[in-house]
Amino acid sequence: MKSAVWRRSLVAAVAAAFAALGYWLAPRNVPPPPLVETRPPRLEPPSAPGERGKGETSPADYAAAALWLSNEKANRVDKIRRDYEQLQMKAAADYAAAGRDFPGGLNGFLRQLALLEREKRADLATVLTVRELEDQELFDSLTGRAVQRRLGETSATEAQRREVFRRQRDFDDRFALSLEVTPTALWEREAARQRLQEEIRGVLGDELFATWLRGEGSDFVVMADLVARQRLPLATSLELWRARMDYLVRRLAILATEGSEMQRRAALTELARRTEIRVIGLLGAGTVELYRDSALPWLPRS
């Protein structure tokens, strides 16, 4: 009984750690995801193309196609996954036992889990083709689950989902092991995130991209709802999002690169002035003043 309870507590610790890792890679001001351990379902092989009904292929159809492997490959994949689950649980046990004495603390633990994820992918790559590996990761990786959760039951095509996944995975791979919180590191990460989001916008188009942004957290949701109440077009919501991102990235750049404290203050004051003018141009001075605290808390006062 004690061993079962201990195992459940370790599983919860690993799930919490991966949630923390996902939170680190997510944009700021985003609440951590639910600590739910998810596994790809066992699905029947997809129907032949001639047996499908008319209309768009559903995400469930994509999942069926992605997860159908031969028994031999499926067994080898399951063994790799189980092996790495045990390694993750051992890391969680070591971290729980060491507490503050664990090398590198929480960041060291998260780095260890990220390294295990990379090693698991490398081992899976020895079993699966490039396409099969991508299929697995679309439904059985932190990045893949995030993409599926955000696009959900939208009209995004399989090609769009895969392209978004590839770009998001490249970003996550680049920054999963970088847990620095220096101004320079934060600037580099947020600037890369902004470039990624613009790329995703190009893949999805404005309407689907707005849905994608809603999945990031409440910041865009609140701004988009304000724009809708003002009966302004969707493009205004996206311009507000861009104004916010430009402000955040530029602010980090100032903190990372400007010389003296006086120079930083002057640069931040000018940035605040220009950002406020930009947002007023989108919404109007009256709307900005009325909803600044509730819908635009990020907007600085010049």
Task: Describe the protein.
The chain has 302 residues and is mainly alpha-helical. It has 2 domains: 1-48 and 59-173, no CATH class; 180-302, no CATH class. The chain contains 13 helices and no strands. It has helices at 2-25, 59-67, 71-98, 105-125, 130-139, 142-151, 158-175, 183-204, 206-214, 218-229, 234-257, 261-283, 285-295. Helix 7 packs antiparallel against helix 8, helix 8 (183-204) packs across helix 9 (206-214) and helix 12 (261-283) crosses helix 13 (285-295). The longest helix is centred in the first third of the chain and has 28 residues, at 71-98. The radius of gyration is 22 Å and the shape is globular.
Strand content: under 5%
The best one-word shape is globular
Structural class, by secondary structure, is mainly alpha
Order of helices and strands: HHHHHHHHHHHHH
| Number of structural units classed as domains | 2
- What is the number of E strands? 0
Helix % is over 70%
Biggest sheet character: none
Question: Low-confidence runs (pLDDT<50, min 5 residues)?
Answer: 4-21, 28-66
Task: Write down the oligomeric state.
Answer: single chain
Kindly state the mean pLDDT as a whole number?
82
Radius of gyration: 22 Å
Q: How many helices does DSSP assign?
A: 13
Outline the fold blueprint.
Elements: H1 2-25, H2 59-67, H3 71-98, H4 105-125, H5 130-139, H6 142-151, H7 158-175, H8 183-204, H9 206-214, H10 218-229, H11 234-257, H12 261-283, H13 285-295
